[in-house]
Amino acid sequence: MKTKDLLNIAEKYGSPVYVYDAEKIISQYTRLTEAFKGVKNLKINYACKALSNTSILKILNNLGSGLDTVSLQEVQLGLLAGFKPEDIIFTPNGVSLEEIEEVAALGAQINIDNLSILEQFGALHPNVPVCIRINPHVMAGGNTNISVGHIDSKFGISIHQIPHILRIVQNTKMRVNGIHMHTGSDILDIEVFLYASEILFETAQHFKDLDFIDFGSGFKVPYKEGDIETNIEELGKKLTKRFNEFCKSYGKELTLAFEPGKFLVSEAGCFLAKVNVVKQTTSTVFASVDTGFNHLIRPMFYNSYHKIENISNPKGRERFYSVVGYICETDTFANNRRISEISEGDILCFRNAGAYCFTMASNYNSRYRPPEVLWYNGKAHLIRKRETFEDLTRNQMDVEINIIKKEKELIK
């Protein structure tokens, strides 16, 4: 997308607005599959919690992707978007047995990450194959909130509890058809990932009827010029070699599965916001925009970096600004950031806004969630309308209130 295209979208659909480039999603998917083309059976399951708009899901389904889900509702969205049940894996955390049974009834692959549910589900449904999520006790990820494979994590079953897993499997006669891990997001060092993979290979040897091994994801994407990213091509060469060796020793061609989310959609997304006020204080110049952490919470929640460009004045003299939102709490997107000179009414573009941005948006301060636009085949397509006041009140129920009337009667 060109700058003029983004400006036209902001003018047509208003601001703030999310915009996604379909071509970038396609190129990222192709890059990942090319890196692992030496694997006979490769399955990419898109982690739809990153961006769950059904139009995005349809793009990935058409590419041949499967779907990684964490809730019954995400499974239902996947089915609505055209995914076959067998191409959906359900990897929840801390959900009820009833929810897992509902998903199993829909035909999706079940992935269980705790001993309690594993034993209960196995006893009730021994003929339903399940995948088991292992916690390899490996610290990986760019932030403590997104590092999920370490010893203190709530995710997965500890590798030290393998004997307990095996006892449950033996007692229930359940079938384990997959082994899974996910160490965390924003992985910088592929050697750490490969180390965790060795733990998964060792664990897999305990299960003789596997169909696949799921290595999770967490591949880091660049957020600014010169930024470090996961070397997918190098990882592809090294893990492909090791995976093929394991399949040979295991005596069966298994499927190598990944569940990328951010890697596929982060760079495809832009978030456009209009500058309401440029405010000079004694020490800072604030650029206040028509959005806040109700629409984009990642900088406040994860301390994440989003490149911010003034697309209304891209060649202007650079000055230092703190970009802040309109929420009545501190909602700073960037501190003391060099940006082309900003005037009130300018449109700012937040890059890397495709993953965990709209999906984490809320109606805080009773603000409407923004629209979503897909840039596809050189045209802008509205894929979610901006919310209205009716959307805010749709599920609220009126109750007759007579408190004031009663107080008046008491005074009399």
Give a quick summary of the entry.
The chain is α/β, with parallel strands linked by helices and 412 residues long. 32% of the residues lie in helices and 23% in strands. A hairpin with a 4-residue loop joins strand 11 (269-280) and strand 12.
Distance between the termini: 70 Å
Q: Give the % helix.
A: 25-40%
Helix/strand class: alpha/beta
- Kindly report the average pLDDT value: 93
GO biological process, one term: lysine biosynthetic process via diaminopimelate
Enzyme class: lyase
Keywords: Amino-acid biosynthesis, Decarboxylase, Lyase, Lysine biosynthesis, Pyridoxal phosphate
Pathway: Amino-acid biosynthesis; L-lysine biosynthesis via DAP pathway; L-lysine from DL-2,6-diaminopimelate: step 1/1
Task: Describe how the helices and strands are arranged.
Blueprint (H helix, E strand, L loop, with lengths): L2 H11 L3 E5 H14 L6 E6 L6 H10 L2 E4 L2 H9 L7 E3 L6 H10 L2 E4 L2 H10 L5 E6 L21 E2 L3 H11 L3 E5 L9 H15 L7 E3 L17 H19 L4 E4 L3 H4 L3 E12 L4 E5 L8 H4 L6 E3 L7 E7 L7 E9 L6 E4 L21 E5 L2 E6 L4 H5 L9 H9 L1
Parallel strand pairs: 1-17, 2-3, 2-10, 3-4, 4-5, 5-6, 6-7, 6-8, 8-9, 9-10, 12-14
Antiparallel strand pairs: 1-11, 11-12, 11-16, 13-16, 14-15, 17-18
Helix pairs in contact: 2-3, 2-9, 6-7, 8-9
